[in-house]
Amino acid sequence: MKGLLKFSGVTLNRGGRLLFEDLDLELGPGERLQVSGPNGSGKSSLIRLAAGLLRAESGSVERSPVALADDHVALDRELLLRRALGFWGGGVEQAMVALDIDHLAEIPVRLLSSGQVKRATLARVAASGAPVWLLDEPLNALDADGRKRLGALVERHLEGGGAVLAASHQQLGGEWRKLELGRRAAA
Amino acid sequence: MIADLIARDLRRGFTGAAWLPIAFFLLVATLIPFAIGPDARLLSRIGSGVLWIAALTAALLPIERLVEPDRADGVLDQLALHGLAEELVALAKIAAHWLTFAPLLIIAAIPASALLAMDGASLAQAGLALAIGTPGLAALAVAVAAVTAGLPRAGSLAGLLLLPLAVPLLIFGAANALLLEAAVSLLLTAGAPFVAGAALRAART
């Protein structure tokens, strides 16, 4: 089985503080990993490293194409949702249905609630077709129905040979491998 | 994707405040006769210099919305995930910014030249110099916007950075030395995407 995402001996310093050191992790097709830990323990930084948006102090990160959903909206607020999502390409219609935001397709992004916007950013990930999904606090602002739909999307993605790396201090639905950050960070 | 990005920035430019720098440009050109008096010979002699000063100050206005909103909103991150090099993103932004800024500015130079008692020939010369110099000015604006993105008081800082760097454009543009103007403009347009790209990478947190 070929790995989709692989950290080898990764060390990351931010603002003079060691977040993690010599970290190894590997995600293959059908695998999901939840990164947890207290605030400031480096969960988001790990996600951004995996996305290639940060560079590690030492060690290497190999990755297949990734899609990222974090707290940044990255959708043009004045556009209708369908067009705003469409800018990023992929199977937008299906993804909107899967997250139950297809009835909002003709509404400008700026009028959506924060939960609806969160669903839209998850829809962008689902539409991307990237094998690796990176979800930073995916449950923020999601209601119970949103969580259920996200869970179903993740299951389908894993069945299709994808992998998911999520950072959250909350309980995610389903069986997740766990990585706890922040134990050694105080040192 | 590059064409999509240019189209997006054009749409945002024109639905946003594309007319604002132009109004500012005309306002500066209007102030000059009030400041130095209605002497037509004096006005027409300094006309092209005034047009360039007005153009430079107008170029400062849109700087804060060229890069910072996309950085803060995560658009730049998503573009990177789509495999777009930061230099290409910067190039697309330069093209879009030039297209929203320069044609309107050159059109606005017509009423401005009337206020400055410039004749048709010197208006044509100034228009040509603006057409040659504005790509460099747009490139400089995007580079400075990228360097200052996310900093506190980025607007004032951007002015302090951009105006000195634009002096060669001003000198050769106002003196109507078109070949030298073209050389400076080309240099800025070629170099700015790399400066802006490096700045966008460095600004990532």
What are the key terms here?
heterodimer; A: 187 residues; alpha/beta; 5-stranded parallel β-sheet; 3-stranded antiparallel β-sheet; 8 strands; 28% helix; 27% strand; B: 205 residues; mainly alpha; 10 helices; 0% strand
Q: What this model shows, in words?
A:
The complex is a heterodimer of chains A (187) and B (205). By secondary structure, chain A is of the alpha/beta class. Chain A has 5 helices and 8 strands, in the order E-E-E-H-E-E-H-H-H-E-H-E-E. In chain A, the strands form 2 sheets. In chain A, strands 5-6-7-3-8 form a 5-stranded parallel β-sheet, with helices on both faces. In chain A, strand 6, helix 5 (144-159) and strand 7 form a beta-alpha-beta unit. In chain A, helix 3 (92-98) crosses helix 4 and helix 4 runs parallel beside helix 5. Chain A is globular. The N and C termini of chain A lie far apart (36 Å). Chain B is mainly alpha-helical. Chain B is 82% helix and 0% strand. Chain B is built from 10 helices and no strands. Chain B has helices at 2-15, 19-36, 40-60, 68-72, 75-81, 86-115, 120-148, 154-165, 167-174, 178-202. Chain B is elongated and about 60 Å long. The interface between A and B is medium-sized, with 18 and 15 residues.
